[in-house]
Amino acid sequence: MSDFKPCEDQSATFTGWASTGTPHLKKWSYHPRPLGPKDVEIEISHCGICGSDIHTITGGWGALPEPEIVGHEIVGKIVAAGAEFQNRIGEHVGVGGLADACGDCKDCKAGNEQLCSKKSFIFNDKFKDGRGGKTYGGFADRVRVRGDFAHKIPENMSLAEAAPLLCAGITTFAPLIQHQAGPGKSVGIIGIGGLGHLGIQWAAAMKCDEVVAISSSNSKREESKKLGATKFVNSKNPEDMKAAAQSMDIILCTSFAKDADWDALLNLVANNGKMVILAMPEAPLSIGAGAFIHRQVSMVGSLIGGKKMSRDMLDFAAKHNVRPWIETMPMSDCNAAVKHVMEGRPRYRVVMETGAAVRAQTSN
Ligand SMILES: [Zn+2]
Ligand SMILES: [Zn+2]
């Protein structure tokens, strides 16, 4: 942040739960940037907890230099807006990993705002539009972002269930669209957790021939079938791995062990197929190149998704009834919620509720 320019609206104070160098979150307040003509202010009702939040607050991706409010599966109501979005006040919206992008570069014009060199992640980042200011995430009562990145929540979807779609949902939906999942294709999902349980549902709703749940234990065998998987592969069972060899056109890798056997995992991909990495490892991967040459397998990554993809994802979820399985907890108990996630216990996503969510429920 060497070229950081502060930009604060002293008349507004937002309060959240900040990481201050340890995973223990503390109540902490900040002044957001002044509401620009293209910005919206959201009163947050819900925020999911994603693996990226945990990596950030535990320092897995590097130490945090200053208090940081994470959270990038944000749902709430627009309560204030700049001139361009006055007509959206009162709208229920969701915000994922992006708070802003330039809108003008090659990547933005192609709908890939997540690749824009001037994009701003929703937390642990600065705005790059020249006004200055730092981004803060959704473990808070409010947030200000560019209105383009606040996506309308479909009418038939609960606000709590919408939250995980903003990261876990888009992260798994976008690569399936990009790599043309659908009839005639076999899709595998490695890791049946917050991301993977949505990946299975998308692939089933896209009518893929086979949807294969791949997990290192049998504990999720039955649940994966309920989610729409047609097959289950235990990656620790050599018989399972042999039977499934070279059978999947697209595999989404949502999590992996530090000692993952990449040759064995790549052997599940069909000739000319793709292994898509969705989780950022904390150390470099060690992979042999045999499958890349001899079977023309590719290994690619995918990062969340742009504005249009996010809107398409929410519409698809609404139409095909794709919903995360969630456990709700009060945001005031965020340390207990984070601990629950770190222990790998949620089935399959924790969504925290703020006072705004509680007030909305009691007024109904
Ligand atoms: Zn995430
Ligand atoms: Zn751009």
TrEMBL record:
The keyword Zinc applies. This is Enoyl reductase (ER) domain-containing protein. Its cofactor is Zn(2+). InterPro entries: ADH-like_C, ADH-like_N, CAD-like, ER, GroES-like_sf, NAD(P)-bd_dom_sf. The keyword rRNA-binding does not apply. Residues 21-352 form the Enoyl reductase (ER) domain. GO terms for molecular function: metal ion binding; oxidoreductase activity, acting on the CH-OH group of donors, NAD or NADP as acceptor. It comes from Entomortierella parvispora. SMART domains: PKS_ER. Keywords: Metal-binding, Oxidoreductase, Zinc.
